[in-house]
Structures
1.
Amino acid sequence: MTDAPADAVAKSAGTAPQSRPVLVRAIQALGTHNFSLLIALAILIAIFGALRPDVFFLPRNISNIGQAIAILGVLATAQTIVIVSGGLDISVGSILGMSTVCIALAVETTGSTTLAILFGIAVSAVMGLVNGLIITLGRVNAVIATLGTMAAFRGVAFIISNGQSISIFDPALRFIGDGKILGIPVTIEVLMLVIAVFFVLMRYTVTGRNIYAIGGNPLVARLAGLPIRTYQIGIYALSGAAAGLAGMLLAARTGSGQPLSGSQGAELEAITAAVLGGCALTGGKGTILGGLLGVLIIGVLNNGMILTSVPTFYQMVAKGVLLIAAVVIAEHQARRFG
Amino acid sequence: MSSLENAEDRAPVLSVRGVSKRFGVVQALDDVSLEVRHGEVLALVGENGAGKSTLVRIIEGVHQPDQGMLEAGGAPRAFRSPADAHALGIRVIHQEPDIIPDLSIAENLFLGDFRRVRGLFLDRRDLARRTRAMLAAFGLQDELSPWTRAGALGPAYRQLMEIMRALRSGVRLLALDEPTSSLTEDETRRLFDVVEQLRRDGVAIVYISHRMHEVMAIADRVAVLRDGRLVATRMTHEVGEAEIVQLMVGRPITELFDPSARSLGPVLLSVSGVTTRRVHDISFHVRAGEVVGLAGLVGAGRSELAEAIFGHDRAIAGSVAVAGKAVRLRSPADAIAAGIGFAPEDRKSQALLLLRSVKDNITLCVPDLISRFDFISGEDERSVAGALVERLRVRTPSLDQLVSKLSGGNQQKVVLGRWLARRPKVLILDEPTRGIDVGAKAEIYRLIAELAAEGMALLVISSEMPELLGLCDRLLVMTGGRIVADLARAEASEERILDLAMGNNLLRGERTMVA
Ligand SMILES: Nc1ncnc2c1ncn2[C@@H]1O[C@H](COP(=O)(O)OP(=O)(O)OP(=O)(O)O)[C@@H](O)[C@H]1O
Ligand SMILES: [Mg+2]
């Protein structure tokens, strides 16, 4: 308000301002959408807390939830950026699988943890780059392009691993998977770091703002001189690298590189979390914080369904329904408040 | 204080009673009461953001009033959606035409009213026939084919399509929200013919415009809104333009144009032999401190030329140089880097990020001014955007307001603000005052003169002839994608330009009306 020009302020101040309750102001500060997500999260916690009060709130279970969402969190926040830019990356599960295999093989051959991790992430970034090049230079729709590479990358993972799971014997990686620093699991710390970086990128940098512009209206972005293709290529490479990092976390947790890992709906969960978090699939809309809340909801839901012994097949149905419900609710809100 | 002293015998089609509407902190309408009668044209005027569009949106049931009500046919009405209003024959032509780009003209016009052959198949022949009759009523039968994709049309044609679409079903009240802002004079005359015909048929017409001469020419009554309040209603024949303007802005408007000659510097923009798919062999130059106008009918290729110079449309031949240095134009980014700026005509689809704030939209092209090592400085950003909001007098409750929530004219100012922040050497303005009120228009003319005086080279495209004549040192007239004349200000006149612009279109047949 303080920045509005004097005459505009004078004009709006001429009429008595409506008194706003504290709650309304809190909602506005957080964003209506994030506020509804918080409420949904609270409800889920209340339900599962009431159903399994004996285990749900145990520190061990909370830590379990955290471990479980670390991988999804990295994928989902990167997916958020891709969706904001007007794209979609379905190949992240396959890239994650490739990453675990690459890291396992690299540990085996070089014996260096650092080199192995860097190698895994670099290969993943290159795969993302391939996605970006197909989409921009080949002018292929992002869904089709990454659907194709999803199959192709998975195939490559099987080829280089001979279809075998490769065990990793490396104490440093094991520490990343199981260890704690300052009492917090390392995987969660990695997630927090990634989220902090993405949050700052999208909120406080020109690059982030330009990503919103490109997703919001590519023609406007072009006429404002933004190099759209460069951005898109960069974003898919980033998405690939993030999937590689997620693969590293998974390899560290399981102590193996498996060509099949990430094939059970990792991309579905990542997209669901991003959309739950307020991303519009048409681009230009969505926040990292929203994506994180989406991840938390999915994490609590997964954990709660396991604790209350919901059969696996029913869990799958629930997740599919959740994605569709998220889109329906988003559409509804856009129409009411847009 | 209303002045409805003339006891009218004609019954009101619609009465607005004590309507108020608030958006957040903005009181868009404040206790407005108004009647629209059969067979009259009521003009609605007021500054940008005065509440005109909000009022017609309420009349059409898009928004619901906070207080007050509507009455039609002697009974109170509550429109919960546009469908309710349409059922009573109330139609609105919106400021921003709203068409489905992937459908043909015919399909857009008659959507929801298709006839079938054998109860199943779309009767394409009937559709084409009805569309041609519609097009003929506007004299467009030679220019447009019923099966042209609507997305390929420029804004003027889209506007005309909106109007045709509203006319197709029985209208009792037609509200036109700045229908002429993207039309040329010729098209405006055609539109007026249509409005005149409707009035004679007893339709009530609400006409919103910032062009006072149009209001004086077409309206029976004028209602003036200021800051959401109805400040006066007058019979048009009882008032003058100046008085209306004074009522609108609350102060007299001084001279619009500065007639003093400008001092010209070196050539900043030189275009030689530029050819694209739509413009042919274009050569001209603009000097520092010079304002050059591009005149022509809609479809003459003016915007297309601007897009070519800006690198948006690939040139097949020819070259562009800025300040003597040849520019390789592969994309707008190259043009901007070379010092060219371009404010396109269709702000909603080409210029504004509707999901972003006023501040983000203004600072989009000046990352260097608002960031260090890619990190945005909130303070710098606010000072850059705030200064321009103030200089252009953008009416917005805050810099963080979504640009989609501003009134049309204020959105246009935000687009201009973006380029003022950038300060290019050459600035191309396509319809810079489209939808801008008289007061703000004078400010924008002054601004253009100021920019020229500071040594910028300006290329202005406009469909408003007085604007071009008053603003420009030189005028290029285009027709059929070519420049057909290069006139100094002294040699140019409306008739001369129109003659040149019409070219062989001059002998287009008389238009006939469809009842
Ligand atoms: N959906 C909305 N949300 C918030 N504010 C709005 C909304 N619609 C309009 N306003 C505000 O209400 C005021 C009146 O807007 P309106 O569009 O009616 O102006 P107008 O008279 O049509 O102006 P113009 O001549 O520029 O088109 C403006 O200050 C505008 O910012
Ligand atoms: Mg308006």
2.
Amino acid sequence: MDKKFKIEFDEANVQDSVSYILVTEFDLKPNVLKAEISGDGSGVMILALEGEEAKLEAAEKRLKEAGFNVSITKRIERDEDLCWDCGACVSICPVFCFSHDKDTMKVMLDNSKCIACSSCVNACSVHALSLHL
Amino acid sequence: MSKTYEQINERIRSGKAVVYTAEEVIDLVREKGADKAAEEVDVVTTGTFGAMCSSGAFVNFGHASPAIRMTDIRLNDVQVDGGLAAVDTYIGATATVPGQKAGYGGAHVIEDLIAHKKIHLHASGPGTDCYVRKEIDTWITIDDINDAYLYNPRNCYQNYGVATNTSDRTIYTYMGKLMPRMKNASYSSAGQLSPLLNDPHLETIGMGTKIFLGGGEGYVTWPGTQYKTNVEEVNGVPVGGSRTLALIGDMRQMDAKFIRGLDITGYGVSMAVGVGIPIPVLNKDIIQRCAISDEEIFSDMVDYSQPVDRPAMARYSYAQLRTGKVEYNGKTIRTSSLSSYSGARKVASILKDWIEHKEFTLNQPVMTFPKDVKLNKLQERGC
Ligand code: SF4
Ligand code: SF4
């Protein structure tokens, strides 16, 4: 399974040690979706993590103990019965979660990249999009 | 080589009609040429499925006992027209719940009626000698009222502009959410599938043309409001909003999949309408025009952050727009469609299916539409 962690850190616990802990101690595959680091070394990053559920939970605990502020981020979900494939969301998403299928021209959603910015939610005229854990 | 409506209908009735969608016909004409294609094909079907605000439905509720002349009418709290006869109303697609700008509106009531859902009716009236009652509160469905037909004063816009936003803040428009500093642009036409781009001078489409409307059979009744013809053309089709159609259709035949209530953030309520129009291939010129492709249809981009005077900033083809991005002065602008291309395709293919299965024949228009129309501006005068 995969989960998305939002990790806030400061100069005392720098960014790369996070990935190190996750890979070596918990055998998780991290994928950095978003990272913002300010001049003083503090910042926030959003990681998509792939691995066993128990290990994901253990990793969350371990990072919290290490002083990181960890939260599980939401991801966009779409009610397929409501979506009418208009395409309004396509140009809104900063990380290109939506695209037109070349053959069917339907609007496809790949929420694995979603950084939960919520920008697409109010672009949808039929309320098909919502953020879920 | 030319055909008549009657010859085409004869072929439909005998199950022999050859039908192509406006998308399929592009390659056919490229391969075989218009002469050959015109011999082979009888009908080209078009389709569009996009937001059309100027839509609505006439409804007659039937009389209660004692009877009421309704003047203030609410359907699921949405205020609908109280200016017709005692129990008639017009549900305008953009009608809202009083005091609200958007949310659930007239278009959603229409969608729910078509979906056979229960609708809360609350109405009041003055009470008269002939209509003594002053108030009624009940629930209705499309199955227990009298008439329910869509009458859309303006649908099927022949092309439309591309919208962007040069300002520093996100703006919310009927052309969707437009991000600051031209991060995106939106467009709204089915392009090569769009009915009026395939018969750009309305040679075959006029009053009485039978169409696909919202999943059922409908008719073209009149030129749509804001119909105009004085628009620049490229490749024989206008580069911006031009002709429009007024449409009618029985809601009981419709499918709520093709009539959708829209709640457009910051703008209000609108309705997505699926419309398909068959084009009879009477001669080779007609099929040549049906062969127009997204590469040949253009639209001008304008800045929706300007309240007045929106000059054209750039011109793009629908083929460019559909790639998901366009270039403007060295900058990449991401693009979004606001009308459903896959929906338009579905409409065109259902209509094709009906014709192939002898369920739908073509009507010759009883009146053609004007060739030379300009729009008036609203004048602000003292008296
Ligand atoms: S919430 Fe943001 S990142 Fe996620 S799909 Fe919507 S626009 Fe994209
Ligand atoms: S904006 Fe909503 S309805 Fe339109 S394609 Fe995206 S999810 Fe579907």
